[in-house]
Amino acid sequence: MPTAPDSPVNGAPAVPSAGRAAREDACPGALRLHTADDGPLARVRIPGGLLTSRQIRVPADAADDLGDGRLDLTSRGNLQLRGLRAPDAATALADRLAAAGLLPSYAHERARNVVASPLSGLDGHGYADVSDWAREVDALLCASPAAAGLSGRFLFALDDGRGDVAALGADVTLIARPDRATAELRLAGQAVARVPAADAPRWALRAAETFLRLAAGHTTRAWRLADVDPTGARVAGLLPVAVARATPGPGGTAAGTDTRSAARGGPRLGGLPQPGGGTWVLSAGTPLGRVTARAWRVLAEIADAAAGQVRVTPWRGVVVPGVPADDAPEVLRRLAGAGFLTGEDSPWRGVTACAGRPGCAKSLADVRADAEAAVRAGAAGPGHPLLPVHFSGCERNCGRPDGARVDVMATADGHYRVTTGGTGASTATGTAARDLPAAVATARRTTPPPPRTTT
Fold first, then answer.
1. Domain end: 52, 67, 99, which one?
2. How far apart are CA 123 and CA 56, in angstroms?
3. 258: closest CA among 433, 432, 98, 117?
4. End-of-domain residue from the set 337, 359, 381
5. Residues 204-223: pLDDT tens digits?
6. Which H or E element spans position 344?
7. In the beta sheet, which residues pair with residue 272?
8. What backbone phi and psi angles, to 5 degrees, belong to 327?
9. Predicted confidence band at 73 (pLDDT cuts at 50, 70, 90)?
């Protein structure tokens, strides 16, 4: 049975507090639920977005049996269940997740925030299959008593060299390098060292544990590495790095890598052949990051007939590898019929939103309904605009993507503030809901600056 999340679990020693983070971090988990207006909410961490065929159905069944019958995909490749009804929902959910191997450590369940390049090892690009790193980072985290002190906001990113998840603003980032023998270690977005690729996950854990030691002496909030070390230099200076130190510099993408998937919001939707022939990897999105449990079971059936796995992406989508080439067109049609987005021409491409009303008491508007109305009225604009757009119901701007984007934020006067952010400049306009389609379409055509690179 799950024990209280704030207590040492299974005899593990108490862990150091990251400043006030251990007392104040309100990020939900699978054990510590968030009380929303539409009922308790649980967030299930899926390190690297990796789900086996056996695990895929568990969240869908839990959503039907315990919640509102839907699943939310988050910007960190995790899953959320809303409207949990049963008084013992947390216990029942934990039991199901633990039995499926989705809750290997109760003490660490909120610390297992790990994103990875979704197509790594599947499309012939990149310098390493970082899904192996994801599994190792997760195992190392769960084996470290200190790592249980990481906040639910702390993020690891594992990039295979294509530059997609390196752009997501992680606290600790590993990037595979062309020599395939080393990896670049970035802290708070800054390149600080090159470490052996074979031991890269251990260096990531060392960096996180070093952050916790620094944060323990802080009297202010220290949820993220940048809270105590904005450049990563202090943490880097305490690491026993035995290989070349990188020159600290601005974050960005690895030199020579493709940034298109990050710019457009993840892997291209649709399908592409896998190396070796005979199979395809399919990529699908979700409207506003939400799907029904029924649609998730369709995904599970498709995975069963393919490679037996699914990868949840940080762009609120899924990747299904190993689909027989002859079946790929029909499988894409089946995914579309279940409600997934399967083509780049979808007007929902790159559109996200927070929960809004009625699920969130702090929201000033039903932003999902307004987002849907705006999209259907043409907010995507002609030519498929470059920038993602995020609708939010208040200043907290929950769930916003990192990087260049358009923020559409509800205001107390019943209007929206449309802001072009993350582009080096920011412009904001007050807009009535009826005028959103034109305002958003114009803002999304803003060309983001070219990404900065480091060598």
1. 99
2. 22
3. 117
4. 337
5. 999 999 999 999 987 777 89
6. none
7. 281
8. -90, -15
9. very high
Q: d(Cα 339, Cα 286) in Å, to the nearest integer?
A: 7
Q: Domains in the chain: how many in total? A: 4
Same domain, 199 and 134: yes
Residue range(s) defining the domain that contains residue 69: 26-99
How far, CA to CA in Å, does 209 sit from each of 1, 18, 199, 236?
Answer: 28, 10, 16, 12
The arithmetic mean of pLDDT across residues 336-353, rounded, is 92
Q: 389-440, pLDDT tens digit by residue?
A: 899 999 988 888 777 788 999 999 889 999 886 554 455 667 887 888 888 8
In a domain, 364, yes or no: yes
Under 8 Å between Cβ of 185 and 225: no
Q: How many CA atoms lie within 13 A of 44 on its CB side?
A: 31
Decide: residue 23, CB within 10 A, 0-12 exposed, 13-18 middle, 19+ buried: exposed
Distances from the Cα of 446 to the Cα of 308, 352, 387, 420, 442, angstroms: 40, 18, 7, 8, 7
User: Three-state DSSP class for 277?
Assistant: coil
Whether the CB-CB separation of 319 and 332 falls below 8 Å is answered with no
CA distance 449 to 455: 19
Q: Answer yes or no: is 246 within a domain.
A: yes
Angle between helices 436-444 and 367-376 (to 10 degrees): 80
* C-beta separation of 74 from 316 below 8 A: yes
**CATH code assigned at 80:** 3.30.70.3340
- The answer, as to whether pTM is greater than 0.90, is no
Residue 187 and residue 279 in one domain: no
User: Phi/psi at 55 (nearest 5 deg)?
Assistant: -85, -25
Same domain, yes or no, for 151 and 250? yes
pLDDT for 36 equals 81
DSSP helix/strand/coil, 329: helix
In a 3-state reduction of DSSP, which class is residue 441?
A: helix
Indicate whether 125 and 223 sit together in one domain: yes
The DSSP letter of residue 240 is -
List C-alpha distances in Å: 373 to 262, 285, 377, 387, 409.
Answer: 26, 19, 6, 19, 15
Q: Is residue 213 part of a domain?
A: yes
CA 353 to CA 371: how far, in whole Å?
7
SS3 at position 16: coil
Dist CA 211 CA 150 (whole Å): 9
Burial class (CB in 10 A: 0-12, 13-18, 19+), 44: buried
